[in-house]
Design brief:
The complex is a heterodimer of chains A (228) and B (1098). Chain A is α/β, with parallel strands linked by helices and 228 residues long. Chain A is built from seven helices and ten strands. The longest helix of chain A is centred in the last third of the chain and has 18 residues. Chain B contains 35 helices and 30 strands. The chains are: A alpha/beta (228), B alpha+beta (1098).
Amino acid sequence: MLLKLNTISKSYTWSAENKVREVLIKLDFELNSAQSVAVIGPSGCGKSTLLNILGALDKPDSGTYVFNNEDILRKTEPELANFRNTKIGFVFQQHHLLPQLTVYENIMLPTLAKKNGTNQQSLNQYCSELMLQLGIETLKLKRPAQLSGGESQRVTVARALINKPLLLLADEPTGSLDEANALAVADLLVNSAKQFGSSLIMVTHSLQVASKAQKVFRLQEGKLIEQK
Amino acid sequence: MKSTRYISASLSFYKKQHFLLGFAIVIASLVITGSIIVGDSVKGSLQTMAKNRLGSTSHVFSSGERFFTSELNRKLSKALDVKTADVLFLKAFAANPDAELRANNVSIFVCDSNFAGFFSAESFRLAENEVAINQTIAAKLNLKPGDEFIVKLQKPQLIPLNAPFASETDRMNSGRFTVKQILADNQGGRFSLRNSQVPENSIFIARNSSLLDKENRDFSNLILFETASEAENNLYAASELMLKITENLALADYGLKLEKLQNDSVIQLSSNRIFIDSVIVKNLQPINLKSISNSTYLVNEIRFQDKKTPYSFVSATETEKFGFNLKTNEIIINKWLATDLCVKIGDTLHLKYWIPDKNEKLILTESTFKIAVIIAENHPISDSDLMPNFPGLSDAGNCRDWDAGVAIDFKAIRDKDETYWDEFKGTPKAFINLQSGRQLWANKFGFETGLRFNANQTDSAKILAAIKQTILPEQLGFAIISAKELANKAALGSVDFAQLFLSLGFFIIAAALMLIYLIYGLNLKHRSSEFELQMRIGFSKKQIFKLQLLEIMGITVFSALLGTLLSIPYSYLMVGALNSVWYGAVQTNALEVFVTERALLYGFISVLIISAITLYYSLKNTKLGTAQSVVSKEKKIKKSRIVWQFIAAISGITIGLLISFYAIFTGQTANSSLFLSSGGLLLISSILLVNFYLTQLQQKTTSNYNSLTNLALRNLAFFKFRSMSVLILFAIGVFSLIITGANRRTFNETANHKPSGTGGFEFWAEFSVPVLGNFNTEETQKKYNFDAEMQHNLLHFEHIKATEGDRADCLNQNKITNPRILGVPNQSFFENSNFSFASSIHTVSKDSIWLELNKLYAKKTIPAVIDQTVLQWGIQKKLGDTITYTNELGETLNLVLIAGIQNSVFQGSVLISESHFNRNFPSIAGSKIMLIESTSDTLTALNQNINYTFGEYGIELETTKQRLSNFYAVTNTYLNVFLLLGFFGLLIGTFGLGIAIARNLTDRTSEIGLLQAVGFSKKQIFTLFFYEQSVVLFISLLLAIISALVGILPSILSNSYSFSGIYLVLLVLGIAVISLLMTYISIKSSLNKNVINNLRVE
């Protein structure tokens, strides 16, 4: 088992209305290594909150989160940063490629955060391998502004995989794409995760995209319910 | 929805951003409008001071070194039917012994109720032991009404003190006086003919004052006229006034006297100045009045072999008119003399007498004559009236009571000489012909002591008419001064403080404009998606542009208006500072704030225009409606342009360094211009090099980067405009502040060498009552009671004469076109290599400028030199230009400026040779200024001693160092203002930096989120952004410091400047710390925000 969420709860307070809204209620979830999972649900149901908790960008109000036998919620901020850097890979709907960097530099960005020295040569080699696998090897010195949407998404995937994460988190990766392209991106994510040995949790609205994952969960009333 | 609703909604929603934009506009408006108000205030205050100084006076008649009687004023008042007042202006010194305070340079105005009528003053009636004083002297001597103090003044001198036989003793009157009234500025307290904002030490006395001898109480040397109405309609022009004055001048006003002699058969014209002015004699010659000229002179000794007759008068006259055809070496003597010397016709007599040399020093000279005729004492050629009115001689009861202006050996006077005096008074004992006499004792004051007319052929009225007809008053030094017009011109032409404060506040304005540009640019960028949306829903670019313009127009107008209003208290602050802590720059504490509609309007419009231009460019450069300015940043810059940038940068640095090396290796380490050019070039070139580096980095598409530093640099390059704006502002700001700070001039021992601005002299002594004689002689030193210490320590004196006039130094805010003239000992300056020259006309070598001053270029056209600072800033002339004066003889005197003296004690005056001075201003007697060389180890004690010795001559003694330091104080004060305002400018720039960083980070929230998501710790992100921002700051500081250090090398190497290392460290540290603090706060607050959500929705 790669990770386990146990009775995770998270609520938000709207200060204007002074109302509390519970988005995750005693949520339990387990994920095995190299497993791909899709999470679906209506807007505002808490999918992104769940993803942020999984990616250690946010903390639940209560519950436990064990990743690879480590209690994530007990980690300090620098430990969490290191955890995100080494164990997690993020893919966003908006790509968030830095315009000042080339494609290669964008992909390599997470390696800069590594505190322990990494062999630059092997990193370069791995980066080239990733680009080749994702079909963007010719874009190495291009700037984000010169890329198409699909190309940008591939660069995002490569960036997410550069540190060989155990878990790939994709937040609405196909939200702005048409059906055909959305399915292609979903395939890319699932296949990439599979190819590079990562697990995948993909948040999406689309049932078709979700169907590409091994398991599909619906987030409903603060809990994850597996869709058979 | 109407566009107004859209605009108001946007204004409301982006209120924080608009507030910041408004703040920047307010700052710009504050400084710009404030500077204009400060300029108006200085000009307005100077005009007010001029008005207070002159009251309703429009013109002033001045008789120069001469005096006229009050009768002239009475006649003029009646003839012109305008308000007039005659004033006797004298110089004095005053002391309050109780408070041990003294005022040396005091002006005494002898006046009556007519004078008060020119000011908002009630007529003051003063008893003979009462005085009215102005506030300046009241403060200086700590006096209030009812207090007593001592006044000592120089009596009116009818005979110029430098004229032969003028008595040097009994020149002063003194007494203890009670302060009746302290006159306010508008009550005439500021009255002065000097165009200066610095009030004089003035005392006002009535004509019956015990300070004046009875015979002098009717004398005046000034008449004030009110010939202009409030509507400025001049009733009389200056020339018309002079005509009226000429019509009403009496003979006495010319200093002349007519008396009938020899049973009314002869009318004699004589002068109360001993010698009749040459111009009068010369001009009367063409008028056929048939006169006999004579000149009677005091001869110390007439000797034949071993026999001597002391102190006799010898007359040069037209002997042929008495039937004696004398040769030039022949003499007629009377029987008394022949008997006394036991001589006969044909014997040779030796005459010994004093004549002044070109430096007015009396030289004992001897001439020999052969006796041609011996006449009786009562011969028609001879009478006692031939002896002119020698004060101290004519009125003496006997010879031993003589008080002549020359040394008399009373032991030589015998009883028979007394008997001759008793019997014949000053009847000449000998006669020579007129030509011989002229060769012997004609001097610059004239030659003839009397003109005799045949009373049967003419009368007094005809003679007076002839004089009026032929003599122009200007030829006697009389002048009409258009005082009001000159004062207004001087005030209006004064230093433009508006321009000055705009320059001094340059960095504040620059920082504010940078803020406007940055804030608005960032605002626009922040709203780029809004503009993109507008484009997509059908707005044209023009429409988007228009909407934006309308949105910011309100902010701009409101902010400019607010800034304009706030500029009023800002002006009060600045003017208040000028009156107090920045007193050194203006030398007055009487500046008032003048807020005019014009200033507010000009300021408001100027701010609107420059804000609009700045906003327009910001708007234009943002490329509204395009998909982010990222696209534009992707634009490739031509490679050749980058190469040229590099070449220019490297060339600039190389040339800059070469200039410095050249200056060092050619020994020109004091040449500040070279090093400043070098430093400036280094700064600009290194900024260009940084720009080149960032451009290259921006264009670079490398696949090799491996550190946060590298990433930070890429970010800097990507946001190049922002980075370079901050860099340029800080680099130029810090560079300017260091350069300015290092230019604070000071004084040091090495600067006291002869070629320096002090000329190698220790003291500059200026007298209100000129001192006579050559102080390098023991005789004069004894006369002035020099004690042993002074005789021992005061090594050398240089005597300088000066005309009355305005000083055009940097301490005078008024624009002076004709500064006072100094007659300097140029020969001595040349021989001793005193002072040096900053510039000269190409035809004259700098080594021979002092000698060049002796030349006469053309009739009444002579060379002159002036302090370089005054040349450049004071009178705003260039070398080769001519300044026109009127000399004492009423002739136009052209001074050709041939050289600028290197920063010297002569600031404020124009210098000519003493020989030219004596020729053009013959009546100006004695030394007004002395430069004193001394042993330098007992200056303080000497200072007290000299002050005591010359106290009654109204000495203003200062060390030459102090004098130069006072001039430096003005520059240094301006530098202080610049440093302060510049520092504020940089503070605002720092504030702008904070805003730029904050806005930058806001724009890059998603980037921060991404960095967090991919595993950057907050510390790493902080480091990345802090490095990115601080590196700009450090590069700018580094470039500024290195370039500035090169620029101020002369200041570092020379002791003439007070360069403070602490100042440099504090300045740099202050800016660095404040900037880093702003950076720290901005980044920390950005990182503390929840940025994760931005990863989902942009």
